[in-house]
């Protein structure tokens, strides 16, 4: 017992010395790491961040997933343990994290992207071209619809929530991440669409990276927790906001709420 506790002490001292050395070379003097299980690549890994904004920097050493992606995967697995055998539509998947796992593990996985210059409904590479606000999928096609940081980039999110609800089977759910940046403050419209499809920002212009568009995507909404009322009003679905903080799954960061909007049986 004494022997084991000594080994433990030595490990702690080594970790402290390593962190001190790393701190000297790191940009904002921040370094954080934790060993745990990654829900995206299903391996024991080391989660590391060298910037204090963990949302984009606390990466899995194996699959480089973000905390929000690991939180989303854990929520899908806990709400729908049979997720592998379900029909899942993911809009605008990334090539990492939960998207990769869903694409690999789910037989009936449909991925869509938004290519406004191409005909909607057609398949382009491995994606269906879909406008989330006006989808060509039939009613009650999917058990789960997944979106990751998409709903803050839509000009008519009410229509998109209604369309997602239409394509969900009874008992299914829209499971998604979106930064609830306004928290308890009311949701704000950040940009509206001009006739030529470009954004008119009502506030400071904000753009996020988009894997299929080098221009990026304009931020159109700053959501608050009242997103729950917005979804109810536009789609009739009841939403639960889940917040996970569990370092053993590498899940710790700001703005990593996962919304689960379920369609009643
Ligand atoms: Zn991983």
User: What count of helical segments does DSSP give?
Assistant: 6
Distinct ligands? zinc ion
CATH-defined superfamily of the largest domain = Vaccinia Virus protein VP39
Largest sheet: 8 strands, mixed
- What is the domain total for the residues? 2
Hey, roughly how much beta strand do the residues contain? Answer: 25-35%
Shape: globular
- What is the CATH domain class of the largest domain? Alpha Beta
Compute the gyration radius: what is it? Answer: 20 Å
What strand order characterises the main sheet? 6-7-5-4-8-9-17-16
**Quick one: how many beta strands?**
17
End-to-end C-alpha gap: 54 Å
Summarize, please.
By secondary structure, this protein is of the alpha/beta class. It has helices at 2-25, 54-57, 67-79, 97-105, 157-167, 227-235; strands at residues 32-38, 43-49, 59-60, 88-91, 109-113, 123-124, 127-129, 142-148, 168-177, 188-189, 191-193, 199-201, 207-210, 213-218, 221-222, 238-242, 258-262. The strands form 5 sheets. An 8-stranded mixed beta sheet has the order 6-7-5-4-8-9-17-16, sandwiched between helices.
Explain how this protein is built:
Helix 5 crosses helix 6. The protein has helices at 2-25, 54-57, 67-79, 97-105, 157-167, 227-235, and strands at residues 32-38, 43-49, 59-60, 88-91, 109-113, 123-124, 127-129, 142-148, 168-177, 188-189, 191-193, 199-201, 207-210, 213-218, 221-222, 238-242, 258-262. It is built from six helices and 17 strands. It has 265 residues and is an alpha/beta fold. The site of zinc ion (ZN) has 8 residues, from loops.
């Amino acid at each position: 017992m004494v022997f084991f506790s000594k080994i433990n002490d030595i490990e702690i001292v080594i970790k402290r010395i390593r962190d001190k050395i790393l701190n000297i070379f790191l940009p904002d003097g921040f370094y954080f790491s934790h060993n745990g299980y990654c829900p995206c690549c299903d391996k024991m890994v080391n989660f590391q961040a060298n910037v204090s904004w963990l949302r984009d920097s606390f990466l899995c050493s194996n699959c480089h997933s973000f905390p929000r992606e690991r939180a989303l995967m854990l929520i899908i697995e806990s709400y729908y343990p049979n997720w592998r055998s379900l029909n899942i539509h993911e809009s605008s998947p990334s090539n990492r994290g939960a998207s990769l796992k869903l694409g690999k593990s789910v037989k009936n996985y449909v991925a869509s992207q938004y290519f406004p210059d191409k005909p909607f409904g057609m398949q382009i590479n491995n994606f269906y071209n879909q406008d989330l606000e006006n989808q060509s999928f039939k009613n009650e096609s999917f058990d789960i619809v997944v979106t990751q940081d998409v709903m803050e980039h839509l000009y008519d999110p009410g229509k998109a929530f209604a369309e997602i609800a239409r394509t969900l089977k009874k008992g299914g759910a829209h499971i998604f991440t979106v930064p609830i940046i306004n928290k308890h403050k009311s949701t704000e419209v950040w940009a509206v669409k001009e006739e030529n499809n470009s954004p008119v920002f009502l506030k400071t212009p904000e753009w996020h990276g988009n894997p299929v568009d080098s221009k990026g995507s304009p931020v159109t909404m700053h959501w608050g927790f009242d997103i729950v009322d917005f979804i109810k009003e536009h789609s009739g679905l009841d939403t639960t906001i889940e917040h996970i903080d569990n370092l053993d799954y590498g899940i710790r960061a700001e703005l990593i709420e996962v919304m689960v909007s379920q369609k009643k049986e």
